[in-house]
Amino acid sequence: MKRVMENPKISALLIVYNEEKNIEDAIKSVEFADEIIVLDSFSTDKTLEIIGSKFPAVKMFQNKFEDFTQQRNKCISYAQNEWILFLDADERVTPQLKTEILNEIKKPVTKKAYFFKRKFFFMGEQVNFSGTQNDKNIRLFKKEVAHYDESKRVHEGLSNVGNPGTLQNYLLHFSFDSYDAYYKKVIHYSKLKARDLYEKQIPYQLLKQLSKSFFNFFKMYFLKLGFLDGRKGFTLSYLSALSSFKTYEFLKEEYA
């Protein structure tokens, strides 16, 4: 008797904190997964209430937030299936991307990991330039390579994925609905990046702080065509420069 091969199974993972605005749509976009796991950093809004009332099958855990890498690795430890699909709460898997994911993992030979190209939205409007035209992240990977590099607290990446593939359909990234929300993220990420630099014994230098800040604005606004995005492009370029400036401000405080 010929043995029927089982379809590969997917664990969809989300790490969240105060995502009551996003969590319902995010989970709905990955309901095709065989299990959904949410690791919460002790939200104070209605995030867990929404999950518990509308998605009883979702597995919920809580862990105190230290940094993004530790949180992602902790979330992975709960996954039971061969494939990991990681989603941020402000991202959405489209029906077209869902179909591509399911077709790809059924192939006889697959990559160990896949980049998802992303369409970026800021304050409700799509951003077409400002560096977003090349935006992609690894979001789908086999559990055998599922470990994030612990030397990075932010902009974390997998340790050993070899030569990743790239899926053709886009993941939607609804980044921030307000300037204030993005500013808070810049400050949070800058503190984590400053800590990384401090532990690597990178010295604070005023010249480097100013030059990196200026170059980040120039790169995003001119080299990556942010000016074609109008006011949104200018705002994103400014926040990119601010991120570098604040990182070195916090690094200076680490040495104080």
Automatic annotation (TrEMBL):
Domain of life: Bacteria
Pfam families, per database record: Glycos_transf_2 (PF00535)
Domain Glycosyltransferase 2-like stretches: 11-109
Assigned protein family: Belongs to the glycosyltransferase 2 family. WaaE/KdtX subfamily.
Protein name (database record): Glycosyltransferase family 2 protein
